[in-house]
Amino acid sequence: MNALITGANGFLGAWLAKALVARKDTVACLLRPTSDISALAGLPYTRLDGDVTDSASLERAVAGRDVVFHLAGIRRAATRDEFMRVNAEGTRNVCEAMLKAGGKARLVLCGSLAASGPSSAGRPHVEEDPFHPAEWYGESKGEAERIALSYKDRLPVTVVRPPRILGPGDHENLTFFKLVKKGIRLEIGGGPRPLTLVDVEDVVDLMLVLADRPEALGEAFFVAGPQHLTMDELQDIGARELGVKTRTVHLPPWVLKGLASAADVVTQATGRKLPLNRKLARQLLAPAWTCSGAKAERLLGFRPRRDVVDSIRRSARWYQEQGWL
């Protein structure tokens, strides 16, 4: 296929680009001029300078494509308006550009479990559940999905909703591995809090299925296996892989909230992004972040193939080999 990836220099985007190149597909990447492209090093791709907030650059980028994988977005911003401008309205810009290009290319949008919000401890989210995001990022991802699917009578559109993703190159879970490397195991009061975790290559595999199968059109799919872990278990597996003995630090919820608020004050005053913030604290204190992959298995015959325990081990080894720990 002739594919365009927005957000190709990110963690998931780079793994998707590698998979497309391995299949000998034609790959173009929409990148901002200031983007760090080290994750794409050595890959044969066409670089297109642009931004999802720049309609003119999008119109040039989507022309002649078979599939547009829309992954670009922001995970951190100071205001709700900024999340909406990039994540939601950026998706509208992509859809409008694709319509102007003829409306024949398929759009595969990367949504997020964050749009659904926390689940209950005993019931994973299913795709039919209404959105109940816990913060602005999740709200903007939910709006992006609503916008994309509003075009389904004019564009071939489908959506993947990953939960927390693991794998070499991931920054989102790095903080927990850094703590473990220092011999610290955080235990937050009020647990356990189950999580759905998924390997980055399983997310890529489902995105490639969504790019091809007619049954995927007009639909959204979680990508999830049957196994749920807790943050405590993630830390324990990481510690064993790194050969580290940890001491447990018990952290009451009110202490975590206070530390997160203080960290946000420091970030606002200095511009330095700290590992802890109020968004992360709310995520950690939620009763559960779980979702079901039953719909993808039922409609597409897709199940994640990678054991998340092995994904944690693989991440830990990679962090250590790269000197990130």
From TrEMBL:
Entry's Pfam families? Epimerase (PF01370)
Q: Which domain of life is it from?
A: Bacteria
Q: Which InterPro entries match?
A: Epimerase_deHydtase (IPR001509), NAD(P)-bd_dom_sf (IPR036291), NAD(P)-dependent_oxidoreduct (IPR051783)
What GO MF annotations does this protein's record show? aldehyde dehydrogenase (NAD+) activity
**Which SUPFAM superfamilies does this chain map to?**
NAD(P)-binding Rossmann-fold domains
Domain NAD-dependent epimerase/dehydratase spans what residues? 3-218
Q: Which Gene3D superfamilies match?
A: NAD(P)-binding Rossmann-like Domain
A GO CC annotation recorded here is: cytoplasm
Put simply, this protein is called UDP-glucose 4-epimerase
Which species expresses this protein natively? Hyalangium minutum
